[in-house]
Design goal:
This protein is of the alpha+beta class. The protein is built from 3 helices and 10 strands.
Length: 149
């Protein structure tokens, strides 16, 4: 998911995927998405064959996560691709989003802190929808493997 400089996607939904040009933090060298430890932090690495068109489609079809502390705009967007959970966050530019694979755990109601032992908290209703999406794409088993790892 690492593209040439200034290559931004053409959004159909008003959402724009931002590849964060010149930032290669989430660029994997593997054919598989993975989450690895880099300088004491967990970092999601995208598979090397993930295209900007696929990234934009994942963003276009993503599920919004809102928080009570910020009900006017989503704090994150979620999707699943080939059994891997992806989270997008607002980038440095308004209206643009940047996504990457993440390991997740269920978020308890009212819980606001984002990370616990390298896993991002995900609301149960979003995880339920991601499971349904993975099942309809034939990747339910792969998603369960991803969630358990």
């Amino acid at each position: 998911m690492c593209w040439k400089p200034y290559e931004l996607s053409t959004a159909k939904t008003g959402l724009v995927y931002d590849p964060m040009v010149d930032r290669y933090k989430h660029c994997g060298q593997s054919d598989q998405a993975e989450v690895v430890m880099v300088k004491h932090r967990m970092v999601g690495l995208c598979p090397r064959d993930l295209t900007i068109e696929t990234a934009q489609q994942l963003l276009d079809e993503s599920i919004e996560e809102f928080r009570e502390t910020r009900p006017e705009r989503p704090v994150a967007r979620w999707n699943v691709h080939k059994g891997v959970v992806y989270q997008a966050r607002p980038s440095d530019w308004p209206g643009r989003w940047h996504g990457y694979p993440v390991k997740v755990r269920l978020k308890e109601k009212g819980e606001e802190k984002a990370k616990v032992r390298g896993k991002i908290k995900i609301p149960s209703e979003i995880l339920t929808e991601l499971r349904a999406r993975a099942a309809s794409a034939g990747h339910e088993g792969r998603l369960e493997e991803w969630l358990e790892s």
